[in-house]
Design brief:
With 391 residues, this protein is of the alpha/beta class. The chain folds into two domains: 10-51 and 301-388, Aspartate Aminotransferase, domain 1 (Alpha-Beta Complex), CATH 3.90.1150; 71-296, Aspartate Aminotransferase, domain 2, CATH 3.40.640.10. 41% of the residues lie in helices and 14% in strands. It has 14 helices and twelve strands. The chain has helices spanning 10-33, 52-62, 77-91, 105-117, 134-140, 159-165, 188-205, 243-246, 267-279, 287-291, 293-296, 303-319, 342-351, 376-388; strands at 39-40, 100-103, 123-128, 144-149, 170-176, 210-214, 237-242, 255-259, 332-336, 354-355, 357-358, 367-371. Strands 2-8-7-6-5-3-4 form a seven-stranded mixed β-sheet, with helices on both faces. Strands 9-12-11 form a three-stranded antiparallel β-sheet. Strands 1-10 form a two-stranded parallel ribbon. β5, α7 and β6 form a beta-alpha-beta unit. α4 (105-117) crosses α9. The longest helix is centred in the first third of the chain and has 24 residues, at 10-33. The protein is globular, with a radius of gyration of 21 Å. The structure holds 4'-deoxy-4'-aminopyridoxal-5'-phosphate. 4'-deoxy-4'-aminopyridoxal-5'-phosphate is lined by residues 44, 105-107, 131, 176, 180, 214, 216, 242, 244, 250, 255.
């Protein structure tokens, strides 16, 4: 054997590097997370037992009812029909069952969209602060990430910045609303103006720019806000969704990728999506989760309880001198760090067993994110130290 070290593919190295900003931090936090006294505000993970009806559904569908029960499953007709019907009622748009591809969460939906609709070297625009995995996932699809920043004052999309980023190689723009990490829901006027921008740019450059609307938090909307999907404003929209947020069960992978019914002639696109899911490594949810979709559609974590936590923490943190804009959706608070070094600030909180996510992990130094999935007891215990750390 020659003495030559085996090396990973060059692409994998770039992907891993793009992830390290976030994953290095996860490793540090993982070493603290299991401590019994920890107040875990770091990630959108459950801190309590799941909804009993969720577990009951999984148990029910784990029992085989035919010889094909656990046969290979692509996007099965029944869950597709359930999702299309739910979307028709919710969005007032004419989704057909075949517009829905079942995926292992929004992750699988995005991976499918990137592979199916973006060529190597194509540019994909998204806004900072982003969900930390857009960039590595785009690199894994050989796409070129192009980043712009949201507006500093209200975290709304910066349409001038997006407009300047659009060019002859732009293939897609990702919009995430309700937004992780800012909690912002983009207003109707912003989405309408974005649609105009994309239509003009598509015409100018002679190819259709896709809008990838990443909406896993679409059902986590607070009572004083209204969610509008970008797909209502721009026809060439692909929507990604996950049940992992509204049910707080991200380990049981299920979600979907939907073609907007406003896209003309969708039959070839539906086929491309299915072929991409197969060639991408069977990017379909497992059989049990597909059977459960009709039940999952009826369930939700306690939204009123989530809103009460938002209101309590927003009020207490503001009173202590923190700057934050109350989120309109998601389960995150996006807070200005009292000191510029958000990593140091977060590490200091970790000394008190309080885990938050520093903004640096999502390219927004000077901020930190609090997940409202923490229990009331964790909030009670953490508040004195959070208040004391306000500066
Ligand atoms: N998009 C965004 C904006 C997210 O926050 C997440 C999860 N944190 C995902 C996609 C992926 O969701 P899932 O793990 O449920 O597939």
């Amino acid at each position: 054997m020659p003495d030559i070290a085996p090396i990973p593919a060059a692409r994998t190295e770039a992907v891993a590097a793009a992830m390290s900003r976030f994953l290095d931090f996860v490793d540090v936090w993982d070493s603290i997370r299991m401590h019994p006294d920890v107040c875990d505000f770091a990630f959108g993970n459950p801190q309590e037992l799941p909804l009993p009806e969720f577990s009951a559904a999984i148990q029910r569908y784990a029992e085989p009812k035919s010889k094909d029960w656990f046969a290979y499953k692509r996007s099965e007709p029944e869950p597709r029909a359930v999702v299309a019907k739910a979307l028709r009622e919710w969005r007032g748009m004419a989704f057909e069952p075949e517009d829905i591809a079942l995926t292992p969460g929004a992750f699988g939906a995005l991976a499918t969209a990137f592979r199916a609709f973006v060529d190597p070297g194509d540019e994909v625009v998204f806004s900072l602060p982003p969900w930390f995995l857009y960039e590595p996932m785009l690199l894994a699809a050989d796409a070129v990430p192009v980043k712009v920043r949201v507006r500093a004052d209200d975290h709304d999309l910066d349409l001038d910045a997006i407009g300047s980023a659009l060019g002859p190689r732009t293939r897609a723009v990702i919009v995430n609303t309700p937004n992780n990490p800012t909690g912002r829901i983009y207003p109707q006027r912003t989405l309408a103006a974005l649609a105009d921008l994309l239509t003009d740019a598509s015409q100018r450059w002679g190819r259709t720019i896709w809008l990838i609307s990443d909406e896993p938090y679409a059902r986590l909307v607070f009572s004083d806000a209204e969610f509008r999907s970008p797909s209502e404003f721009y026809p060439y929209t692909l929507i990604s969704y996950s049940y992992g947020k509204v049910l707080l069960t991200p380990g049981q992978r299920i979600g979907w990728l939907a073609l907007s019914p406003s896209i003309p002639d969708r039959a070839p696109l539906r086929k491309v999506i299915e072929r991409t899911q197969i060639s991408g490594g069977w990017l379909f949810p497992n059989a049990v989760m597909q059977y459960a979709v009709g039940d999952l559609e009826q369930m939700s974590i306690d939204l009123a309880g989530l809103e009460a936590k938002r209101d309590r923490l927003t009020g207490e943190l503001r009173a202590a001198g923190y700057h934050l804009r109350p989120p309109e959706g998601t389960f995150y608070l996006w807070v200005r760090s009292p000191v510029p070094d958000d990593v140091m600030f977060s590490r200091n909180l970790a000394d008190h067993k309080i885990l938050v996510l520093p903004g640096t992990t999502c390219e927004a130094p000077g901020y930190f994110r609090i997940s409202l999935t923490a229990t009331d007891d964790m909030i009670d215990r953490a508040l004195p130290a959070l208040v004391a750390a306000s500066g």
